[in-house]
Amino acid sequence: MTSSYNKIGCIILLILMGNFLPGIQKIYGQGLESDRQVVSGLPDQPFLPELLELNSGGIIEDISHPGQWEQKREWIKEQYQYWVSGSIPEAPSGFDSKILSEREENGVIIRMVELQFGPEYKAKMTLELLIPPSDRPLPVFMTQWNHRGWAQVAVRRGYIGCVYAGADAKDDTENYSEIYTGSDFATLMKRAWGCHRAVDYLYTLPEVDTNKIALTGHSRNGKQSLMAAAFDDRIDAVVSSSGGTGGESLFRFTDNRFDTESVEEITRKFPHWFHPRLRLFSGQEHKLPVDQHSLMALIAPRGLMLSSAITEGQGNPWAIGKAYKSVGKVYDFLDAEDQIAINLRGGRHATAARDIEDFVDFFDFIFGRSDKQPKNEIFYDYSFDEWQSKTGESFEMIPKFDPSDVSTKGIRNKLNWLLGDEPPGILNNSDLSWEKRKTEDDYLGDVIGQPRWDGMQKMLIRPYNSMGDYLWANLYLPENVEISNHSIQGKYPLVIFLHEYSYPTGYRRRITQILKELTEKGFAVLAFDQAGFGTRIEEAKNFYDRYPRWSLMGKMVADTRNIINDATQRISFVDPEKVYLAGYSLGGTVALFTAVLDDRVKGVAVSGAFGSFKTTATSIEGNRHYSHLHGLIPRLGLFEGEESHIPVDFDDILNAIVPNPTLVIAPTEDRHHPRQHVEKIISNVDEKNSLKFIQPATYDEFSPNMVQSMAKWLEKISQ
Fold first, then answer.
1. Which structural domains are found in the chain, ordered by start?
2. Prediction pTM value
């Protein structure tokens, strides 16, 4: 299936997937079309659905007592099973167990057990118990078959290790759909339900303290661990480690512009993990009635830790922080605020013993074995209300701009006010010669990785030969550049490419194609991480404490302008008359703002970059998106309810850029920037001859075809 959003193809794929999920095929005949129609009719909820609200016959009311929360819990369970995981059977009334083997190793009993249960006892679950010596019942550390090494660490900490066969390495749940034909659970929920059967057995053992059963897993096992804990209250604490999409991260914030594993990608590559209905939300993630924060809330008030590396490609520390804060409200409501934790660690996707020790520390705290509380560090803790309280800014304090002033100078003044009060600064004067290029990367850059392929030259710009305000950047050049006497000969047109909302990886993860396309066409391409992304996550953490009246978007634009200055003034092989900006999503927005403010930009190409500030529809990327959700332009939040007074919108921005050549790519099914809003903005642009407007029939993505179109257009205008 292509990356384009093809609803018919999606339906066909879902029907075919029935062949791989025995027991659920019957759902995907005539019922699939009605499900698709239901999804289209669900309300738009681009911000996370509120957990402590109850919909009673169309009337929304705040949850104020435990009985209402129990109602909400049952609703979440029903919705999650229907749309995401598939439904689980009733627990079996009993089971048989047999010990397959038992031995002792350094005082630890190692026991292999097989459970049999279900109709005609056809279902089974194998588990390995690692029981250290003790004269009293012990807590249990449960994990999946391929994480036996984790259990080894826990055994030394006084836990019974319980390793169960619900993983790729050994999966006893594969035939559960054939045995339980009345349930349509997909692979991850089958494994979670298999974990419940292991808990059945643990409850029969005198060695087990049944009030202290902990569960953890990594990656896809982290996803199933959350499901298992959410649907079985006997699991007293859980750590989801690097579960990514469908784990600690949120479906709403995993589409292509976030550069993580989208709903489309995960359901295409791993169609058996989730219920096929989930794929219906590809490109419509904002219509999911429940999200991963809903699943996590089912675990409250029991112990819950969300753990992920801040720079791993499938995670998203920004989205995980949103989930943690949202679910934390439920824990507060249940007077269990110290039972939820977040562990945004350094490193890559893989774990090490240091991480498992942290997990056991958390379990010890939850079980009262230690008073060492988790640090719970959040890297994105911005709040519009806190910003407004800190600055004292209000709608009444907004300058009185002349709405009739649509001159370039007037637009610049209005935009500069929105971007905040940029502090005075100075320009860089370091040596940016080819001879002074570096070889080492930022340590986080080494973790994230660099785009690599045969057929390019690369100039790493590093301290103490930096750009802008001590920034690191990479300049990519055609393979056939002429190098003589440690210098690059000739002049090259420059494209500065600005990345999307790729919080954990910055520009590095999926930039290879655009780099190849442009360098093969003779461009020098400069890329860098914007503040708050990739190697600069930590830099932006306290931005509004340091610069309360500036904005992150203002910083991004200032960085881009400084880099233009450095490139045109201090890189000898850059042609200062041929400097272009290109960007996708957030990067496209930064490119447009920069092009308005900097005359050295000779052309700009963007994809999925704008809707409208002035729309009152909170379902799209409007003022609240920039002011509240991402904290990019706080001053836009002052106009909530007064959107018509916002002094500048994207039609003004475009009018200030043209007659310089401008390319706008706007997918027709982009949920963040609905077609009618983009077309209205474009219709208000006066200088149409300099504007090329492309509308691919797809959802929000930066597809290979779009990349090629952008590269060809840049080549044409640079001639």
1. 137-159+211-366 (3.40.50.1820), 389-718 (3.40.50.1820)
2. 0.93
